[in-house]
């Protein structure tokens, strides 16, 4: 039995939460493999709406077990708040959630460092959750892991070392002077006591479950164009968001990965700074933002909006090895008479169909569009089969598949769980 991977195929915010929730009935375990509380996965069903940041979206299905893997950076306060929110909403978490003892902790100084970095010349557009600085400490071997919260002497030594080191590096006017090691140790030991019943060796759990033929879905955060190696660097997140990151972040070996499911929005959005070749400005961009309610689930910030970029999706399909895809937010485009698709670029006068990742080349790109007729005014949110979709909507889907080099097996026509077409 091989695991399946869910990946965002653009700049994040593609609707992964809904698709994971929809697919969870076909799986026994859902595991997050990277990112942190900067993710915002939204699920709607009946009259309920859940926005999850750390716990996998599969928690909303009673039968599923959920894992937070070693590749996730964990804000314990946010996690505990999320657990309480779910339990108060009637969702059972105890006995269903498992947290890797190797996952790294977001500490108070990480959020301070995030704020300092964002105030500098190179503004990335961070969510301010401390994600980047936590991954930095992980890579530089200064990190504090979940297991350290269960060992007071280890935690005390690591907290003391980190605060002293950061003070020496950054000087006195950073807010670090206000951090009291003893208080932080006390607070995080208390977090550890709350979390300890969830903590285990999740790599062992996942691999043992696969031997027992349990079906596993690995859930990523953000999107391929935000990958630290393959995205629009430096305007990226600090982890590997592509499908290969699922192995590093879960402990499941590559030979045990099967399907890679790419989640693709019917248009393109981006949060924060960085290049965006098909970005729309003015009234059209604002109309798309309002129609799609494109505001960050984590920060509330308005998302930058633009037309579908087939070049980006082809690139994403290549580096992720996408085997099938889910199309989301198709219903949002019902407000347009015509819908362009970016099928190529002009770069220094030459037509290209690749996706360059250097900032100078990205800044010089000129999108080449092909215009398709829309289905303005036709409500597709009630469609339950592919054949019920308007002809122009089906033509648009075929074009996305043709130019994006992907195949859609799932089509979302609304935010709710039931507004989903299996093709």
Give a structural overview.
It is built from twelve helices and 20 strands. With 423 residues, the chain is of the alpha/beta class. Strand 16 (338-347) and strand 17 (350-352) form a beta hairpin. Helix 3 packs across helix 4 (131-139) and helix 5 (152-170) packs across helix 6. It is globular, with a radius of gyration of 22 Å. The mean pLDDT is 94.
Number of strands: 20
Largest sheet: 10 strands, mixed
Helix fraction, binned, reads 25-40%
Quick check: average pLDDT? Answer: 94
Which keywords apply here?
423 residues, alpha/beta, 10-stranded mixed sheet, 20 strands, 21% strand, globular
Please render the helix and strand layout as text:
Elements: E1 3-8, H1 16-23, E2 29-32, E3 41-45, E4 48-52, E5 65-68, E6 73-74, H2 76-88, E7 97-100, E8 104-105, H3 108-118, H4 131-139, H5 152-170, H6 181-195, E9 199-200, H7 202-211, E10 216-219, H8 245-248, E11 257-265, E12 268-270, H9 282-291, E13 304-306, E14 308-309, H10 310-320, E15 324-328, E16 338-347, E17 350-352, H11 359-364, E18 366-373, H12 391-404, E19 408-412, E20 420-422
Helix pairs in contact: 3-4, 5-6
């Amino acid at each position: 039995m091989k695991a399946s991977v869910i990946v965002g195929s653009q700049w994040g915010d593609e609707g992964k939460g809904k698709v994971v929730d929809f697919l969870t009935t076909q799986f026994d375990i859902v595991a997050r493999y990277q990112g942190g509380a900067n993710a915002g996965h939204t699920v709607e069903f009946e009259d309920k709406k859940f926005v999850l940041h750390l716990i996998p979206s599969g928690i909303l299905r009673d039968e599923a077990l959920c894992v937070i893997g070693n590749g996730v950076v964990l804000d314990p306060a946010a996690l505990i708040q999320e657990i309480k929110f779910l339990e108060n909403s009637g969702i059972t978490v105890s006995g269903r959630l498992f947290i890797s003892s190797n996952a790294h902790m977001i500490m108070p100084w990480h959020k301070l460092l995030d704020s300092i970095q964002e105030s500098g010349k190179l503004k990335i557009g961070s969510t301010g959750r401390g994600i980047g600085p936590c991954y930095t400490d992980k890579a530089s071997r200064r990190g504090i892991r979940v297991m350290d919260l269960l060992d007071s002497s280890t935690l005390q030594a690591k907290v003391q070392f980190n605060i002293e080191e950061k003070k020496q590096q950054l000087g006195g006017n950073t807010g670090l002077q206000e951090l009291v090691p003893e208080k932080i140790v006390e607070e995080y030991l208390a977090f550890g006591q709350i979390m300890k019943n969830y903590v285990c060796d999740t790599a062992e759990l996942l691999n043992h479950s696969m031997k027992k033929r349990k079906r596993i879905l690995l859930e990523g955060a953000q999107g391929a164009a935000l990958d630290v190696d393959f995205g629009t660097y430096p305007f990226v997140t600090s982890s590997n968001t592509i499908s290969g990151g699922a192995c590093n972040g879960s402990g499941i070996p590559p030979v045990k990965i099967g399907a890679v499911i790419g989640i693709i929005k019917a248009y393109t959005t981006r949060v924060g700074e960085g290049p965006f070749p098909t970005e729309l400005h003015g009234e059209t961009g604002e109309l798309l933002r309002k129609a799609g309610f494109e505001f960050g689930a984590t920060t509330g910030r308005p998302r930058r909006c633009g037309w579908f970029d087939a070049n980006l999706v082809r690139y994403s399909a290549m580096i992720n090895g996408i085997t099938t895809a889910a199309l989301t937010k198709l219903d949002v485009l019902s407000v347009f008479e015509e819908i362009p698709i970016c099928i190529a670029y002009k770069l220094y006068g030459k037509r290209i169909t690749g996706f360059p990742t250097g900032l100078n080349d990205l800044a010089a790109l000129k999108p080449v569009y092909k215009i398709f007729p829309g289905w303005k005014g036709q409500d597709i949110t009630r469609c339950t089969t592919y054949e019920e979709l308007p002809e122009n909507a089906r033509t648009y889907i075929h074009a996305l598949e043709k130019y994006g080099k992907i195949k859609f097996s799932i089509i979302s026509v609304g935010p709710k769980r039931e507004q989903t077409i299996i093709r």
